[in-house]
Amino acid sequence: MAVSPEEIGLCGCWQVIAVERTSLDLIPPDAQPTVEVGYYASSLSLEQRGDAAVAAAIRDHWSAIENGTHYRRDVTLGEDANRTADRNGAAVLASLRNLTNGIYELARERKQTQVDTLRSWCQQQTFSSAWPLLQR
């Protein structure tokens, strides 16, 4: 069903895009595929970005997230393996993971590290080596 951005309360948008995703959880092996719909709003007109360009932008966005921050949090910092039951404790740990990732990105941007992975960088850090990055 086609709707205008104004009809759904998004004045100023030129495009509202619905993307249907099908995913299959590999565990358990007999799992059924699930379908979800993601919605995106854009201020670009169809003349500025057609269907193929919008689809590529959405794929690039999620690729950067999954291969960047989420990968670091899930794999390097073990977020998925952590089973902290207390909501406050989980929030504190998530904040610390975000802080760690942010300090690493600052060090990389300022060319203050030659290390190319977060895991290697974390192994070299102490409070006194990380603190100066936060004081600028």
Describe this structure in words.
The protein is of the alpha+beta class and 136 residues long. The protein folds into two domains: 1-50, no CATH class; 68-136, no CATH class. 46% of the residues lie in helices and 13% in strands. The chain is built from five helices and two strands; from the N terminus they run ββααααα. The protein has helices at 51-67, 69-76, 87-109, 118-124, 127-134; strands spanning 15-23, 34-42. Strands 1-2 form a two-stranded antiparallel ribbon. The longest helix is centred in the C-terminal third of the chain and has 23 residues, at 87-109. The N and C termini lie far apart (51 Å).
Beta-strand content? 5-15%
Strand order of the largest sheet: 1-2
Count every beta strand, where a strand is a DSSP E run of 2 or more residues: 2
Q: What is the mean predicted local confidence, pLDDT?
A: 85
Tally the helices: 5
State the major sheet: 2 strands, antiparallel
Structural class: alpha+beta
